[in-house]
Amino acid sequence: MVWYDKWAIMAIGAGVGVGAYNWIRWPDVDATIIAYWVQAAGSVGALCAAIYIAGTESRARKKQASVVAKLTYVGMVFRLHNIQLAVGKASKKLAEKLDPDTRINYRSVVQLIDQAGMWRPDELIALVPLENDVAIFLSTAGDRISHCRDLLSRADRNPKLNTFEMESKFNGEMSEILSNAHRLIVEASNRGRILTNTFQVKTRE
Question: pTM above the 0.85 mark?
Answer without folding.
Answer: no
